[in-house]
Amino acid sequence: MIRFLLRRFVTMAVTLLIISALVFFIIKLPPGDFLSNQIAELRAQGESASIAKAEFLIKQYGLDKPAWQQYLVWIGVMPGPNGFSGLLQGDWGWSFEYDKPVVDVIGDALWLTLLVNLAVVIFIHVVSIPIAIYSATRQYSVGDYLATFIGYIGLATPSFLLALIMLYYMNRWFGISIGGLYDAQYAGEPWTWAKTQSLLSHLVVPTVVIGLGGTAAMIRRMRANLLDELGKQYYVTAKAKGLDPTRALLKYPFRMSLNPFIADIGNLLPHLVSGSVLVSLVLSLPTVGPILLSALKSQDQFLAGFILMFVALLTVVGMLISDLLLAWLDPRIRMGGGR
Amino acid sequence: MRYAHKFLEEHMEAPLLSVRQLTVDFNTDAGNFRAVDGLTFDIPKGKTVALVGESGSGKSVTAQAILQILSKKARITGGSIVFNDPANGAAIDIAALQPESDAMHALRGGRIAMIFQEPMTSLSPLHTIGNQISEALMIHSDVDQAAANQRTMEVLARVGFPDPKRALKSYPFELSGGLRQRAMIAMALITRPVLLIADEPTTALDVTTQAQILDLIKELQGETGMSVLLITHDLGVVANVADEVVVMYRGRVMEAGSRENIFRNAQHPYLQALMRAVPRFAMAENERLTPIREVTSATLTSAAAPERIQPKGPILKAEHLTKCFTLRSGWFSGNTQEIRAVSEVDLSLPIGKTLGLVGESGCGKTTVSKMIMRALTPNSGRVLFDDGTGPKDVHKLEGDALTTYRRSVQFIFQDPFSSLNPRMTVYELLTEPLRIYNIGTSDERYARVKQLLDMVGLDHRALRRYPHSFSGGQRQRLGIARALALEPRVLLCDEPVSALDVSVQAQVLNLLKDLQSALGLSYLFVSHNLAVVDYIADTIAVMCRGYIVEEAPKSSLFRNPVHPYTQALLAAVPDPDIDRPLDFAKLRSGRFSQPSEWPEPFRIAPGEFGVMKEIEPGHKVRVGHLTAREAA
């Protein structure tokens, strides 16, 4: 077990290293960078004071050095102007666009993103699992067709469109204000009970909008998995023991049909951050998605690089968690059997 | 007078279960049909009733109806199933109960328990044996987990688990097929039911294991006095364990009576036909099986083998084949383990003959056939193929020579359902080999395919249909037709009839025989069924733990089996003849498949190979190292 974990950690580290290199060089691929673009702009306007600052930043972050040196400084294996100070040392870098350290730009947004998407994940599972069980056990019934129909609509509706519609009607019917994750008055305020309440009421629309497509997909997959398992012999055995059908269903086929979803956790975690960019833009949610988009557009390299690395880290950790969970839940994997 | 009264009383006693005019209807997309049609029979107390018939005869549906676990598409539409519970004397009509009523839940698993055919899939792979068995007890009686575990261990010990405490925490995939079925039996019996329904309980098991399981069921029946409803298609099993027999065909009873009556004096033509279709050991040299539905072919009698140079020696020969597999022992550990699946196997297949390779599951017979096909590379030894130009090592062939070899040796698979691509029509399936080898124009291919279909007794109208619209036997014949498309010289048949019904099995075996005599084919016939091999093979090689332990022409093998493993194997085959019962006492002692536990001179110490010793012309037996040295 310990050897396995060690091996996994080594491969994880190597994977992250490769990803960091890829991320950095892809961000650097377009010619120029945020600062030199800005300097060119400032020159055109003739503002020498700002130019001096920008040039200081260029020195400070070594943007005049070759790309590979910048990369090594960024990840923190080569001393930069401030000595060893990179991702490995916990220095996430400077956002040129916001003129703030990356940690200040992202800080709140990161947690809000995780919160919104966690709410989405819970929403998806809470809604889709009961519906899937219902439609699988009553295959080809009216309810099954209805769930399928609604599911397809959910899949087919563009989420940003739904977001706009819901925003309008939520405001009209319930007076919930438009956009954001809390009312404007709380922006920059410390977290209080009132702010939390405001946050919760604002969470409803994004959760439903982002979650609907996923719910529909989940219902379809869960239903198909369950249908496969319902035909299995061990379910008949459980019923032949005299177990009542609901308990038999939950203990045996349902448990079996969960495996693919546990294996999916690795994909789910990174999705938490990057999955909802479009909706976040439409609803002007202060989440990471829009920040990443603008950072990529303006070549704000440390900001974009950090967000992408964070997503990569979530992916690798997610994979590890799902592997460990699978091994814990499924003895066939744990014991290397499964003849 | 008093005697007469007592006689009446004994025989008028109500049977445990009496089924009267039972009908079960299926509503499917393809229309409605009646799976069970006015079925009537009784299960007396403490007796074993065998329900016999082909697949599709409605015997499993009957069992499901008794437990009310029919699929959603099926419904009991008439008749009664009266259960007289000896515990309280109450008579309950199961057919009138709601499937999910409390009364039905209490009966199901509590008073009437069931075991199934495939013990691997019947147990949940995610839960321990202990969990699944104790659950059955906890549903039906008011005990806590600790008491249930205690009782589970007792039952596991009773059904023959060597270490019940460990078994409690074992998962199904850690157990052998035989132990899994024992666990199923423990699960059924822990609630002390009065009726055990066993649906093909031994069909998926090896013969020696089958004999042990049948023995166990009989023993437990003697102890608890329960009745058994045994559902099977194997008349050999019926002859050995049943008290009464009910023969079903298309949901109706064809014939019913005591075992004596049924076997000595079969009346109904269907039952007679069923009995003639089963291969037996005592068959005459040229006796032919009579399938229930004979398949005829117009062109087969006139078909002839293509003119080819004939090899002087055997067409196929294996020399000292050895294959090891490396197992990773666990997911988390890097430990590996070497398993020798095949050890020093020598085989030789003469042209136009059939070599039967017999052994229990896991003995390495499929590995051998895969090495011959060059799907696996042996660790040592070689396979020689002689197409008339002298023997060549198959594993050194390259280019055209390899292509020719692949054409000459074709494979027939065990499972006719998964071996045909469901998305291809019969025409596409049968022309695929021709297309791969670029043979003929499309007109010629069409003619060839029609000829092939006729050879295997199928109508050429089948060409446009997809495999799912054929029965198992028809599919297996399609598989044979596909194997014949390239005019091969050798067919490797890996358990070609073990997934088929007895009646269909006879059809396919006869077809293989006819094809052999018409086309001059050579067969390597791999099977676990001794009677089948006896019917089709000329020479038989018995395999155990990767060794060929005995090889002989079939007459001398069955007349004079020398090796203890061969003897055990032969003794374990249930014969559909009530005058030759199984010797359960002998099979009980059971360590036949441990080379290190065979009596001298057959004992093979771990790490040794032993030597084949010829005891009469063509009859060879593997003996241990010691005696070989003595002989030298």
Compute the gyration radius of chain B: what is it? 27 Å
The largest chain-to-chain contact, stated as pair and per-chain residue counts, equals: A-B, 32 and 37 residues
Into which percentage range does the β-strand content of chain A fall?
under 5%
Major sheet of chain A:
2 strands, antiparallel
The multimeric state of the shown protein is heterodimer
Beta-strand segment tally of chain B: 22
Proportion of residues in helical segments of chain B:
25-40%
Count the E strands of chain A.
2
Query: How confident is the prediction overall: mean pLDDT of chain B?
Result: 86
What does this protein structure show overall?
The complex is a heterodimer of chains A (339) and B (632). Helices cover 74% and strands 1% of the residues of chain A. Chain A is mostly helical. Chain A has a two-stranded antiparallel sheet. In chain A, a hairpin with a 4-residue loop joins strand 1 and strand 2. In chain A, helix 5 packs parallel to helix 8 (193-230), helix 6 (142-156) packs across helix 8 (193-230) and helix 13 (265-274) packs antiparallel against helix 16. In chain A, 32% of the residues are buried. Chain B is built from 23 helices and 22 strands. In chain B, strands 16-17-18-13-19-20-22-21 form an 8-stranded mixed beta sheet, with helices on both faces. In chain B, strands 6-7-8-3-9-10 form a 6-stranded mixed beta sheet, with helices on both faces. A 4-stranded antiparallel beta sheet of chain B has the order 2-1-4-5, with helices on one face. In chain B, strand 11 (316-328) and strand 12 form a beta hairpin. The N and C termini of chain B lie far apart (78 Å). Chains A and B meet through helix 9 and helix 17 of A and helix 3 and helix 5 of B.
